UniProtKB/TrEMBL annotation:
Protein keywords: Coiled coil, Plasmid
Protein name: Transposase
Disordered: region residues: 80-112
Ranges in a coiled coil: 24-79
Superkingdom to which the source organism belongs: Bacteria
Amino acid sequence: MAKKRLPSPEHADTLSLNALRSLVTGLLERSQQAEARLAKLEAHNIQLREENAALRLDNTRLKLENQLLRDEIARLKNLPPRPPFRASGMDKATDSMLGDKQLSKKKPRGPKLDVKRVSRQEILRINAPAGSRFKGYKSVYVRDLVLKAELVHYRRECWVTPDGKTVLAALPAGTIGGYGANLRRLCLMLHAQGQVTTARLTTLLNDIGLDISKRQIVRLLTRQLDGFVAEDAAVLHAGLVSSSYVTVDDTGARHSHNPCYATHIGGPNFTVFRTTKSKSRLNFLSLLRGGYQDYVLNDAAFEYLKERRADAAVTAGLRALEPQRSCNQVPFL
């Protein structure tokens, strides 16, 4: 059926009364038809949304059933089941220290906030034409990086005490084998955070003008790490003390061509990784202790023995044991 052609509304002033009535009636009919089509489309949209929600629910149910079947197959094959949760995304988290909410927001554009930390100021002059008037300076802040190799000659004072002993002035803290602390910081940062190999580190430092070998770089990266070990232990202790909950997980990992286990211990504000050759309960408890090796027989220990229904003779022997605290396992046993 052909659509009824309506008079043009552009010349409504020249239309007759019947033509105006016909125009208004036609517009009303088209408006009612458009509303009917819109209502039909909205109903169809609601139906599609309900079907989409049902399909999503079915998809989730199928994923769970698939995971259960995978776990059952792994159990029958004596394999460890696959964890049902997704990857934590730690690789992405290491790219930035900001939270998810801050990452989603765009950084507002504006003036830099580091202009108060100017390290050097230079005045750039120009040969102005004769008769020109000086109007001051126009400031431009340029950010640059300076990598410079230094060979520092330390002259250490040497004294001989009245009893014949020689006393030397100490070198600056962090000096290892004739190389300073700043060089070691750069090597550690590029190797650990930037994933730069020792060969590329050697090439980079030699190009800058520093005479260093690959073997010496390996020494800087692997020797005298007691400070990092102490800091790592302090992070674990502070996290266990302050966190309201602790999450743990372990997975197989090869280390030095030997099968080992990597254990993750974390909370809302800390994360610690440990690699050991065992995943036993005693090994896990030793990791949770964070380096502490002492044995203590207190009320909590005897309450635990009571809950586990330990032999009364063993409990009485432990109560009579002196001292009640041992520095490690050897004197305790």
